[in-house]
Write a structure and sequence with these properties.
The chain has about 240 residues and is of the alpha+beta class. It has eight helices and eight strands. The chain has two domains: about 35 residues; about 190 residues, no CATH class.
Length: about 240
């Protein structure tokens, strides 16, 4: 078979005889491999037959790097009411600095791709980080920026999707109850200013998938209509076929 990789891969070449021996060495392995091949073939046929808006949307997202992503934020414009709760929740979770821009990003039909990290399989932002501050971790393989960022800006320049911004460190978020009851501080989601001093430096910030939050991404949880969703390429393809 002839295949094309969408990201950098390591391949292992083995002879047909060795592969046949491998299939015969484990009970049921041959049948499982055959079933997997048939399932993928049916999926490919379904994708080729998909026409109209579904196929066009899929082609659009492929052009936006969906194949490189492991998790991408999508907004259904037919459900979105422009409340910006997603941005406010993101800001409230990250000391007043939102990691997404709902209005920015491309749109096709009713599918909008806001400016937010896609957590690429082979992240370009990782390639030239002097302190190795950009890491992959967590159960879902989220890409996040550690506290040892020196603010060089290489990752911002290398990201092809413009999802990294350089920002001054901000103070901790105001207490919600103090704001609600006594009116002290800013309301949740209000951008906070960094303390002005000559030692302040900008550091890279981007979506970290709310890796330290039990409920998952705050932007998705805050959406009142269910318009915002984070999906993997596989999940989206399955929705289209």
């Amino acid at each position: 078979a002839t295949v094309k990789a969408t990201v950098k891969t390591e391949t292992l070449s083995i002879s047909r005889e060795s592969f046949e021996a491998l299939l015969g060495s484990v009970e049921g392995l041959r049948e499982r491999m055959q079933q997997l091949a048939e399932d993928r073939n049916r999926q490919n046929i379904a994708l080729q037959r998909s026409a109209g808006e579904g196929g066009d949307i899929l082609s659009f997202l492929m052009g936006q790097g969906l194949v490189e992503a492991t998790d991408v934020l999508l907004i259904d414009q037919e459900l979105c009411v422009s409340c910006d709760f997603c941005e406010q929740a993101c800001a409230a979770t990250h000391n007043g600095t939102s990691r997404l821009n709902r209005k920015a990003g491309p749109t096709y039909a009713h599918i909008h791709v806001p400016t937010s990290c896609r957590h690429c399989e082979d992240p370009s932002c990782m390639k030239d980080c002097p302190p190795d501050a950009i890491q992959r971790g967590g159960v879902g393989g989220e890409v996040f920026i550690g506290d040892n960022c020196i603010g060089c800006g290489n990752c911002e320049q290398n990201c092809p999707y413009g999802v990294i911004q350089m920002s001054y460190q901000t103070e901790a978020s105001d207490n919600f109850w103090r704001w609600l009851i006594f009116g002290f501080g800013g309301k949740p989601g209000t951008a906070k200013q960094a303390a002005a001093n000559e030692d302040a430096i900008k550091r890279a910030v981007k979506c970290d998938m709310c890796i330290d939050q039990k409920g998952g991404p705050a932007c998705v949880r805050a959406c009142p209509t269910g318009a915002a969703a984070r999906v993997s390429p596989e999940e989206f393809v399955n929705l289209m076929i």
